[in-house]
Design goal:
The complex is a heterodimer of chains A (317) and B (259). Chain A is α/β, with parallel strands linked by helices. Chain A has 2 domains: 214 residues, P-loop containing nucleotide triphosphate hydrolases (Rossmann fold, 3-Layer(aba) Sandwich), CATH 3.40.50; 63 residues, YebC, transcriptional regulation domain (Alpha-Beta Plaits, 2-Layer Sandwich), CATH 3.30.70.980. Chain A is built from 11 helices and 13 strands. In chain A, helix 3 packs across helix 4 and helix 8 crosses helix 11. With 259 residues, chain B is mainly α. Chain B has one domain. Chain B is built from 9 helices and no strands. In chain B, helix 2 runs parallel beside helix 5, helix 2 runs antiparallel to helix 6 and helix 5 packs parallel to helix 9. The longest helix of chain B has 45 residues. The chains are: A alpha/beta (317), B mainly alpha (259). Chains A and B meet through helix 2 and helix 3 of A and helix 1 and helix 3 of B.
Amino acid sequence: MEPLFPTATGAGPLVEARQLVKRFGTFTAVDGIDVEVAAGESFGFLGPNGAGKSSTMRMIGAVSPPTSGTLRVLGKDPVVEGPAVRAQLGVVPQENALDEQLTVSENLAIYGRYFDLPRSVIGERIDGLLDFVQLAERRDSKVDPLSGGMKRRLVIARALINEPTMVLLDEPTTGLDPQARHALWDRLYRLKQRGVTLILTTHYMDEAEQLCDRLVVMDRGRIVAEGAPRDLIATHTAKEVVELRFPHDAQEVAAAKLDGVGEHLEVLPDRLLISADDADAAIREVHAREVEPSTVLIRRSTLEDVFLRLTGRTLVD
Amino acid sequence: MATPIAVRVLEGHVRAYRHTWRGTTVSSVATPLMFLAAMGLGLGTLVDQGAGADRTLGLPYLVWLAPGLLTVSAMQGGAGDGAFPVMAGMRWIRTYHAAIATPVRPTDLLLGNLVWAAIRLTVIGAVFVVIAVLFDAMALGRGLVALGPATLTGIGTTAVVSAFMASRRSDLALSGLFRFVVVPLFLFSGAFFPLSELPAVVEPIARLNPVWHGVELTRAVALDLPPTLPWSVHLAVLVVVLVGGIVWGHVSFGRALRS
C-alpha cells in the first residue's frame, strides 16, 4: 500500500509532559500528570467524562496554556511556538465543527488554506484524502445531509490535510452506531500502520484496546495507571470475570455470602462481578455457598474492570 | 511568501459567500429601496410640506435623509456581521474552534471577519448609492466618496459587536443587543431628524452616540456641507470605536478560544 504521506521518525518523544497542571479558577481539571509519547506510537487517555482528558488534549494541541508544569510537543514549547506546533498537528475535536452549508471538498479546502497550503496542493490532497476516508463520491455534496459516521470521517480527512506528524483525536467515535465506529476504527488502524502517531481520548475500553499501543487511565485529573492494554489487565485484574445477576432484592444478601470468592468482588447496582483466574472454580464456590444467581456470565477481563478496580467507578455512567 | 493568516481566513468567508450571495444580494437591494420609498417619498412629502422643510438644511427631505440612511444601514449590517458569524464560529457550529487548531490565531479570526465585513458593507453601500442616485437623492461621485465614513461606521460596529459577543457565555445577549443597543443607536443617530429637534436635555446625550458622528460625516461628504462639529472630531470618534473594538476583540476572542 502506498503511504498516505511520509511521517516523521527521529529521536526524542513527540510529547513530553512533566507535572502538567490545568486549572480553571478553583477547579483543577488536570492535576500534575507525567506523559511521554514516542513517534509512531498510538497512545490513549482512557477515563470517564470530566477526568481531564480533553483539557490535556487541548494543552498538547497548543490551544490551551498549561497552568503549571512543563510541556514539550514535537520538541517545541506549545505556548511560545503555538502556530509552529499546530502546523504539524492534525486535530479531530469532540465536536465536528464542519461548515454544513459548504460542500465536503470546500470544508477541506478552507481548512487547507489555514495551513497556507497552495491551492494546487490542496486539490491533490483532497482527492487522496476523500478516497482514504471513503467519501470520494460525496466530494461535491453539502455536509448537512451526511450521516454521523460520514461527517466524522470527513473530520479525519480534514485533520490530515496538512500531512501532520501527529494526530490528536478527542472521543473519535462517541455517538456513532457500532457499524460506523468499526468503519472509523479501520481507517485509524490504517493510519497507525502507516506510522502516523495517534493520541486519542476515549471512555470506551474496547476502543482503547483496539487502537492503543499504550494508554494511561485518568480519573479526576490524575493518572491512576499506565501501560499496554493487555499489561494493565494482567496487572490490575484477574484473567476472567464472572458476572452474576440476581432477582430484585436478592443481590445484597448474596454479596454478603460471597466475600472472599475469587480474587476480588465488585458490587455494582445491577450485578456482582467476581474477578478470578479460574472462573469455573469461582462459580463452584458460589454454588457451594448456596447462592443461586438468576444468570451467570463468564468473560475475559477488560480495561473497564481495570478502571473499576482502580477507582471503584464505571467508565460510562 | 506566506499569505497573512487573516487573509486566509477572509478567503474562507469569500468561499462560503458563494452559497449565500443570492439571499444577501436581494436584501441589500430591497432594503434601501423600501426605506427610500417609505421614509424619503412617503414621510418626506409630509416633512417638505410642513414645518420640517427649513430644518433639513433647506434640502428636500429625501436628499437630506439618504446619506444618514446609508450610514445607519451600514451600522445595522455591521452589527449583524459582528454578531452572527461570531456566534456561529464560537458556539453554534464552532468552526472557530476547528480553525484555532491550525496556525490560525483568535485575532486572525477577528480580523478576517472584519475585513470581510468591510468588503460586504462597501458593496452593499455602493448598491444603496446607485439606488439613491436613481431616486435623484444623491450625486453618484459624492455618494461613492461618502461610502468611506459610512463603511467606517459599519466596521466599527462590527468590531465592537464581535468583541462583545465573544465575551458572552450564551446567545441570550443577541436579542438584547439588537433591541436595547442597535435600535436606539439607529433611531437616535440624526439620520431621520436633526438631533437639535430633541429636547435640550436629551440632545447632548444623543450626541454621545458614535453613529451620529458617522451620519454627520457621511452627510457632510455626500452633500458638500460642513459637519456640525469639526471633521477631525467626528472622524476621531469613528476611529476610536474601531480601534477600541479591535483591542477588546483581541482580548475577548483570546479568552473565549484559548481558555
